[in-house]
Amino acid sequence: MHYLILIFLFFTFTFADNYKRILFISSYDLSFPTVKKQLQGIQKALDEKVYQLDVEFMDTKRLNPVDVEFTFFQVLNIKKELLKNYDAILVGDDYALHFVKNYQKAFFYKKPIVFFAVNDIPFAKEVSKNKYITGVIEEQNINETIDLINELHPKDLKVTTIIDNTELTKRIINNFTEESLQKVKFLDFSNYTIEEWEKKLRSIPSNKPLLYISALDEKNTQIKEFYQSINLIKKMTNSPLYHSLEYGIGEGLIGGKVVLFEEQGRQAANIVKTILQGKSIDQIEISSTKNKYLFDYEELKKFNLIDKIPENSILINKPKSFFDKPLIDILVDILVLFIIVLLYIGYLLFKLNKNSKKLKEKAKEQSILLSLFDIGDSVLFKWNNDEEWSVQHVSSNVVDLLGFTKEEFLNDNIRFTSCIHKDDRRRVQKEVQENIKKPFFKHEPYRLITKNKKIKWVIDHTVIIRNKENGIVNFLGYIVDITKEKNIQNTLEKLIDSQNNIICLSNAEQISFANKKFYEFFKCNTIEEFQNRNKLLSNLFVENDRFFHLSKIEKGENWMEKIQDFPENERVVAFHDSSFNICAFSVNSNKFDDDLYLLSFTDISETVINQIKLEEKSIRDKLTGAYNREFFDIKYKSIISECLDSNKKLAIAMLDIDYFKKINDKYGHDVGDNVLQTFVKRIEEVSREDDILIRWGGEEFILVLKVKIAKNLSIALENIRKNIENYNFEDIDELTCSIGATIYKKDEIIEETIKRADISVYKAKAAGRNRVVISN
Predict the structure, then answer these.
(1) What is the widest separation between alpha-carbon atoms in the chain?
(2) Quick one: residue 477, left, alpha or beta (phi over 0 = left, psi -120 to 50 = alpha)?
(3) Phi, psi for 293 (deg, rounded to 5)
(4) Residue 631, CB half-sphere, CA atoms under 13 Å: how many?
């Protein structure tokens, strides 16, 4: 298993630089049901050896789309230079297409853009007039689903259709034809409370078909989650529940004619491939999704509808036959069957000793079974339970493995233990003692020495044969040559060791493989040494809001799985190196087995440091080092939210240096600049830790404070005023400031708060300056 993974790693890192680069901009995020399937479709269409896919999420489902567009613009503006490296742009859903249209010239000038999953068909057609844009529109088949329900349930004249008052419902109903509207009867969840809804559902006759559009927004505007809504309907009714969208089918919904999200991702990705292979995008017309009938096999069976659905329908949750299983499962089944055969052979040997009358018959059966090994790749041994494991039987093909003949073993010319490599012999013998109470066991790979002194790597599966007193008589095992695979594994381990990334294989509890870079960074020689010192890799994550750490997920969740749900730019962890410097790493986590993950850590410390410097530079006043207006515009909403969450009041104070113009006129602007710098430094020294000072313009500053009660605001500002008045500023006689302040009122626009603080400053100046005025 491990060497296959190493092959994958080798080719991944070797050919990474030859990729065509594609950027996928999604309107939503990975938690939204459609996005994961869209990504799967894209990734299946794009060969990883040829194409590199990056993803940016707008997250408009969880956040206000208007706010998201501005923030997303700022994020991409920082990455503007990186965007030039992309060969094509994929766009998922309506919000992302609107964004790309608005900022095409800014970020994607003359780059081919392919959209998909867009419901606003007129907008999609209008945008596709641009010679650099084409794509796949998402046409729903609600009317075909209604016709299907009529065919499957001809006795029900009208289809009971569950709706609510959400925007999704309104958009879907707009797609109903006049004919379809005559075939349905709407049941509006928005007209009921939860209790009334449950009572209404119970009154629906058994087996009456229902068409689910949406039931999320009830009478008292209490919002339910999608799967909560489905589970409630299934609990209160005994009806097939149809749907015209893919998600939910297989988890309570019976199905319908649906948009396949994976297929639409694949369809769009194939268009991108066509373009990157040389076809001009302006020659590619927009197309529609290829919708199909999709059903839950278990639900069809429950309502006796399996034989009535359209041909070529896709079925999920259908029990798999033996040959439908994955190859690894089939091989495991064969291996189990093989072991059972070996156990049966052992049973036959035992019966031969017990019942002499059947000796010839059983010996014949044994001979037939054992002869299978003479022509196969596996070598069968039957060892006696003695110190040197003398051989009672061995298949003839042992000569192909070790060069010794069957007769040399049976005549005691050679003992099996003498063939085991001296460095492995004690371990192999120890494994026998550790497993002696089991009916059968498997050795870890070990080395055998052939007749011509060559080394071969093998594994063996051994069955323990006991007598009627439960004493061990023999060991029956088959040996498989894995030399070629072991050599490949060793070679690939060396190749992986040459990579600059930290690479390891791990489950939730322990690491099973690590490369040279891992040992160098963590200053250890073996995995055991690392885990004895640290136990878990995640224990070393630096807890900082800028980086991913365990506090960002629920307790008990597997971080290697959950980190894949984070946007790519947030999949960054930090470790302390041996000098206790913070090093940042971009994390790539891929699942290869039920609980085994391949982890790759790419050092991006320099990039993160530069990004921090860039961010800090953009929000700081160049002269004084105080925050600037841009910082305030970005942060004031979150500051208000933090105050409300902590039950504190937000105060805005305007600070104006008295007679600052006279200072510039009398002493010069160099002295004036020094005064501003000292003024800021002094305020930051005497203000509270979480107060935020912002240079508003010239000699005007805003101080943002969080206070429990209004009285505390006056105390804090008087302390600042007195410290400025009493401080000995270099090169000038004296300095005072006038301060005006006010408390933010819930839900008011922030400009109104600032205006009240500004008026308070004028009142302070009019009253003689060098004072604090607080207004309501």
Answers:
(1) 125
(2) beta
(3) -80, 130
(4) 21
Neighbours of 144 (CB within 10 A): 17
Angle value at C-alpha 713, between 707 and 716, nearest 5 degrees: 105
Full-model pTM: 0.41
Residue 218: phi and psi, rounded to 5, are -90, -175
For 28-46, letters b (16+ CB in 10 Å) and e give bbeebebbbbbbebbbebb
- Check: CB of residue 574 under 8 Å from CB of residue 542: yes
Mean pLDDT score of the chain: 86
Please name which of 268, 266, 261 lies closest in space to residue 286, comparing C-alpha atoms: 268
CA distances in angstroms from 447 to 191, 302, 420, 475, listed in the order given: 75, 56, 6, 19
Report the half-sphere exposure of 703 (CA within 13 A, side-chain side).
30
Q: Taking the chain, what is the end-to-end CA distance rounded to the nearest angstrom?
A: 71
Distances (CA, A) of 544 to 568, 572, 573: 17, 11, 9
Q: HEC profile for 70-83?
A: HHHHHHHHHCHHHH
Q: Identify the bridge partners of residue 89 per DSSP, sorted by sequence position.
A: 23, 113
> Parallel, antiparallel, or unpaired: how do β-strands 737-743 and 772-775 relate?
parallel
Q: According to the model, what pLDDT value does residue 642 have?
A: 84
Distance between CA atoms of residues 386 and 401, nearest Å? 23
Task: State the Cα–Cα distance between residues 699 and 661, nearest whole angstrom.
Answer: 9
The helix (run of H) or strand (run of E) holding residue 274 is helix 261-276
pLDDT for 5 beyond 60: no
* Inter-residue contact 639 to 692 (CB < 8 Å): yes
For every residue of 304-321, DSSP letters joined together read T-TTTSPTT-EEESPPP-
Q: Are 242 and 160 in contact (CB under 8 A)?
A: no
Cα(762)–Cα(765) distance, integer angstroms:
5
Residue 725 to residue 133: CA distance in whole angstroms: 64
Q: Lowest-pLDDT range, 206-210, 381-385, 503-507, 589-593? A: 589-593
Joined tokens for residue 296: 């839950």
State pLDDT tens for residues 203-242: 999 889 999 988 887 777 665 678 888 888 989 999 999 9
Separation in Å, CA 258 to CA 11, 161, 290, 294, 632: 37, 16, 9, 7, 47
Please provide the size of the chain in residues.
776
Q: In which band, very low, low, confident or very high, does the pLDDT at 10 lie, cut at 50, 70 and 90?
A: very low
Q: What is the pLDDT of residues 519-546, one digit of tens each?
A: 999 999 998 899 888 888 998 998 887 8
Torsion of CA 746, 751, 753, 759, to 10 degrees: -160
Who's near 218: CB < 8 A, 6+ residues apart? 164, 189, 190, 192, 193, 194, 197, 224
* Confidence (pLDDT) at 512: 86
Which residue carries 């050599």 as its tokens? 487
CA distances from 657 to 197, 419, 679, 724 (A): 65, 92, 9, 10
Q: What is the pLDDT of residues 636-695, one digit of tens each?
A: 888 888 888 888 999 999 999 999 999 999 999 999 999 999 999 999 999 988 899 999
By C-alpha distance, which of 261, 286, 285, 291 is closest to 26?
A: 261
Report the distance separating Cα 683 and Cα 678, nearest Å.
Answer: 9
Which residues are CB-contacts of 53 (< 8 A; sequence separation ≥ 6)?
22, 24, 42, 43, 46
Q: How confident is the model at residue 16 (pLDDT cuts 50, 70, 90)?
A: very low
Tokens 């006056």 correspond to 714
Report which residue type is found at 5: I
Residue 333: pLDDT band (50, 70, 90) is: low
